[in-house]
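User: Please predict structures.

Assistant: First:
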Amino acid sequence: MNNMYLIPANTKSGKLIFNIFRPVDLMIALTGLALTLIMFFAIPSNELGATIIKILPIGIGSLLVVPVPYYHNVLCFIKDVYAFFSNRRVYRWKGWCVRSEYGQEQQ
């Protein structure tokens, strides 16, 4: 094969728990589940609003760890979006032609 290697697309999934979750993802999901269970036992109520508040921790935790295309999960997507908007986005060219005539006109 002319010294070319073929790497499978799912090589990182072997490092994950259940081939989907990182340890942080499981902690988020289990913390949401634990908070939801505690709230169900601690807060007695038959109203819809209180039930929604009780279910909110597991709902948020599940949404953060659900897999999305091109990212590991929603949490990784949110971190990348934050990094994009909080970092500098104006880049100064310092490549091989920085001292050429084209580089002088742009400065």
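Second:
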Amino acid sequence: MEFIQLKQSLKTKISPIYLLQGNDAFSLQKGMELLKKSLISMPEVNYILIEGEELQAEKLQQFILSCTAEPFLEKRRLLVVKNFHPTTKEFNKYCKFYFENPLESTVLVIVNFEEKEQKESNEKGKSKKENMKVKLEKQANVQYVACNKLQKTDILKLIARICTNHSVAIEAQAADCLVAYTLKDMLRIENELLKLIAYVNTGGCITLQNVQDMVMPEQDFKIYELSNALALQKQQEYFRIQNDMQQKGVESIAILNTLLRHYQTLLNIYVLNKSSVETAEQLHIQNFAVQKYKEQIAKIGADKLTMQYKLLVRAINDYKNGYISQELALTQVVAKIFYQ
């Protein structure tokens, strides 16, 4: 079953075990929320959320045992376990009997975020079948819900539904532009859409111009986040974004050049020292983006901004002159900004 079919399926049949699995954080989150809203009315007593990484040996046994408890004053209980990947040995020992004989009054929901298809490990010492991760979607009584990136047609339907629920209209071109600017990232689409809805108010209409003025294209947004995390010393956030970009094939020198261009833009805005409208006209940047950049400049400070810009220039020049590799250039400049 695809995520988009989950809501309709709940009207005809409730499965005792659901596996929400895929690479789309939005679908996984909304799937959890939908099941919680549809199946129980007293979450304070009939809802449990636990991390699957904690469930080993006795703890896994205790969790499975808790699935057999009766709900309190309503028809069902909801147990949600996130990131649950038991081995074949663990599953057969602790879980198999319950999966084959689930309690009707308990709905067990497993939520697994997986960027790539799960593969059996071939590492030394882990090649035995009992140590491989069990394929939960193939187990008894499991309703598998594929939570992968949505197709554009489904995204447009969700955009229309969100707008309708808030009594707001949206132009077809505006919806298309929003999808393009966010690269079909539904978590970001929802956030941006709620801002636009608040801007046009009930009964209003979101236009193409609204989206162009108020939504930053994904590449610009990523660089804004990356530079913000770097400048404000948010190491964990910075490396999360950098690693994501590198996993998608962006080379170290491309990251350096993109950061440099962004810092140049920030310095130009600072030196111009004009209103957002005037700055946008002179630098050919969206007015909304200029406002965001000005906020960033204020957080960083002119002195730190200049210093970090010079470090980027020096690192790129050292790479171009053959003194260091692009990977080392990026590593060094990031280390200097974080630790000097």
